[in-house]
Design brief:
Number of strands: 3
Strand content: 15-25%
Oligomer: single chain
Largest sheet: 3 strands, antiparallel
Helix content: 55-70%
Distance between the termini: 29 Å
Number of helices: 3
Radius of gyration: 11 Å
Structural class: alpha+beta
Length: about 70
């Protein structure tokens, strides 16, 4: 996968998180329509840029933006 595509997906994911707030990872996969690999690559991109915070909601992995 090209680095450009991962960055583009990270931007789309950022917009979804900005609109949604705190989201379970499983729900985020449905909202984004990304394949699992694409989702985790985009989350990794955002994590590397210190733009997301990971935690749990009801014992499930979740994420939100850091402002």
């Amino acid at each position: 996968m090209e680095k450009f595509k991962i960055g583009f997906d990270a931007g789309k994911l950022y917009q979804i998180l900005d609109e949604s707030g705190e989201v379970k990872i499983s729900d985020l996969e449905q909202k984004s329509n990304f394949k699992e690999k694409e989702l985790y690559l985009a989350l990794g991109w955002l994590a590397r840029e210190d733009k997301v915070f990971f935690f749990e909601i009801e014992n499930e992995p979740a994420v939100c933006l850091i402002y």
